Amino acid sequence: MPEAHPTSGSAVIGWTGAFIRGSGYLRKWLILGVAIGIIAGLGAVVFYLALDYTGKFLIGYVGGYQVPAAKEAGGGTGSSGFVRPWAIPLIAFGGALVSAFLVAKFAPEAEGHGTDNAIEAVHTDPRSIRSRAVAVKMISSALTIGSGGSGGREGPTAQISAGFGSLLTRVFNLSDADGRIAVSLGIGSGIGAIFGAPLGGAVLAASIVYREDFDYKALIPGFLTSGTAYAIYGSLMGFDPMFGFVEPDYVFNPTHLVWCLLIGVLSAGVGYLYARVFYGTVGLTRRLPGGKVIKPAIGGLLVGLLALVIPQVLSSGYGWVQIATTREGLMTIPLWIVLVLPVAKIVATALSIGTGGSGGIFGPGIVIGAFVGAAIWRLADLAGAPAMPGGPGVFVIVGMMACFGSIAHAPLAVTLMVAEMTGSFSVVPCAMVGVGIAYLIICRTSVSIYQSQRLNCETAAAERVTVSAPRR
């Protein structure tokens, strides 16, 4: 018999893997970075469209309610009320039920917000993210959020590109060190692409895996990967900031620093509450009777019922942030809703994702922080407080940065991302005080919204040594 030879496909993969492994730093990350960036950008486009169409069909067509859209999606103001209020809880229940079934049946690891799984892969096994989990995560998240569940679109997008980084690590037999960077690049570029924030995404890739450290090896490749992802996403979806240009004419005013300090303190407290309630719900759900399909469905039903009183908790909520950035828009929202919405959004996200549903937790954190800032501005304006900005935009921006930047232990990355999402880099000098005080407060606790984060590079390295040490 003739001697068996490897197929041409496997030979090409083997040669490519050897070429990449033998390449220098520049050539290696030029190849891998661009490849991951292309998939991150395309993945962000696919998931954005899937989520947009699912939401328009389930909530819009079937439920008869138009959720307000951010400026990137046309800036629609949404419906003034429910046409079929009885349908909203049923749609949220049904979407969560089907989503949970798909996860339980095909990829149990796709449960929850997803970013933690990608971070865990960085620290333990960068080859471990299954391609099936990525596909299931995309479909299940579109169903959860599109049916009204309170979740963000960044978790599924991060898992798409992180999963591709994991795939490259397996296929090309990359070293663990290179694999960890590849998966980190996937996380940052995916999130940066779908939020239109390439600089923040690049910095996020280097900071999201640690609480008190920064992976400089991922930073420079992150520029290339995140820039590529943004170019792909923007070419197909547009390059305008996610929330348009908020406060484009803002000029730094030192008197606003006092308000930023207050926003930072309150944002840290609300962020702390967000993390504790979310993971408290995760723990409680695990102890409650019932399967992994019915519990997220019940959570969806409860979110639908809550939305009948506070519609702003439905879906991602980015359109409501858009509305809250202007005086005219914020004044159309009843004061009591502005005040309770941060807590209501926390509860809705815990019920949607903390019970086992699929979706991100970055997006809700941005909405929660935005309305912390909006509530402070609304009360201060009502009281006629001095040294106030003319509109709520500055407060909303600082609230977004401070709330999620602190509990994600990524203050610089989130600050840059929100500045890019709002086109408001002029607010950053003022916002630094709010973000800084919020982060310092959270650092005095053990709380993080991403529980798979390690403390720093040294503890992560020591953990890997301990795990890989042979047993005697």
UniProtKB/TrEMBL annotation:
SUPFAM superfamilies: Clc chloride channel
Compartment annotation: Membrane
This protein's UniProt keywords: Chloride, Chloride channel, Ion channel, Ion transport, Membrane, Transmembrane, Transmembrane helix, Transport
Topology relative to the membrane: Multi-pass membrane protein
Residues that span the membrane, as ranges: 29-51, 86-107, 181-206, 218-236, 256-275, 296-321, 333-354, 361-380, 392-418, 425-442
InterPro entries per record: Cl-channel_core, ClC, ClC-type_chloride_channel
Major location (coarse): membrane
PANTHER family listed in its UniProt record: CHLORIDE CHANNEL PROTEIN CLC-E
Protein name listed in UniProt: Chloride channel protein
